[in-house]
Write a structure and sequence with these properties.
- The complex is a heterodimer of chains A (about 120) and B (about 110).
- Chain A is built from no helices and eleven strands.
- Chain A has about 120 residues and is an all-beta fold.
- In chain A, the strands form two sheets. In chain A, strands 2, 4, 5, 6, 9, 10 and 11 form a seven-stranded mixed sheet that branches. In chain A, strands 1-3-8-7 form a four-stranded antiparallel sheet, with no helix packed on it.
- In chain A, a hairpin with an 8-residue loop joins β9 and β10.
- The termini of chain A are far apart.
- With about 110 residues, chain B is an all-beta fold.
- In chain B, β10 and β11 form a beta hairpin.
- The chains are: A mainly beta (about 120), B mainly beta (about 110).
Chain lengths: ~120, ~110
């Protein structure tokens, strides 16, 4: 089975540009998580969805960040406008159907560089 | 607030030596605990998990971890380290209230030939 798929794997953009990161979770998983990883702050949860509904977006740094999950097989994280401090690796993870705590399966990440 | 502590930021061991990575959690009488590994340029891969039952859990790649409630610890061990084990290791605890995973800061493992 395919794991979590993220695209693009690398993105270089200029400050002020819009950036869209994409994620396809594992089929049958009903929870999806967006994380950001930097050397300074480690791994931070930005937002997560359950059954396509955003449950907790308290980790989204500011209004420039938005995330959507239009269906069970696709999610996007958008940054508009982007800033150099947004440079990081962004991971998407999904978790199996059901309630409670389940292990999360991570995608390979998107390395974003904003110049 | 719920937190996970990995006291060692960086550890170096010789190939073939034993390994123990420390993890302390702060919350929950019955914690849900995980260890993940991240190789350079890769995503996080689940090594093992503890939900309940036997306090010694076996994972992939020859790793095991022991849950000790009295010490609020969930240390990761491997009897003999291979050069390919060089990576960053993350301990995490699940929150039954929110469904979130709380990650530690990670421990970077370097393996000497």
């Amino acid at each position: 089975d395919a794991g979590v798929i993220q695209s693009p794997r690398h993105e270089v953009t200029e400050m002020g540009q819009e950036v869209t990161l994409r994620c396809k979770p594992i089929s049958g998983h009903n929870s999806l998580f967006w994380y950001r990883q930097t050397m300074m702050r480690g791994l931070e949860l930005l937002i997560y969805f359950n059954n396509n509904v955003p449950i907790d977006d308290s980790g989204m740094p500011e209004d420039r960040f938005s995330a959507k999950m239009p269906n069970a097989s696709f999610s996007t994280l958008k940054i508009q406008p982007s800033e150099p401090r947004d440079s990081a690796v962004y991971f998407c993870a999904s978790s199996p159907r059901g309630s409670g705590i389940y292990e999360q399966y991570f995608g390979p990440g998107t390395r974003l560089t904003v110049t | 607030a719920q937190s996970v502590t990995q006291p060692d930021i960086h550890i170096t061991v010789s190939e073939g030596a034993s390994l123990e990575l420390r993890c302390n959690y702060s919350y929950g009488a019955t914690p849900y605990l995980f260890w993940y590994v991240q190789s350079p340029g890769q995503g996080l891969q689940l090594l093992l998990k503890y939900f309940s039952g036997d306090t010694l859990v076996q994972g992939i790649k020859g790793f095991e971890a022991e849950f000790k409630r009295s010490q609020s610890s969930f240390n990761l061990r491997k009897p003999s380290v291979h050069w390919s084990d060089a990576a960053e290791y993350f301990c995490a605890e699940g929150s039954s209230n929110t469904g979130k995973l709380i990650f530690g800061q990670g421990t970077t493992l370097q393996v000497k030939p």
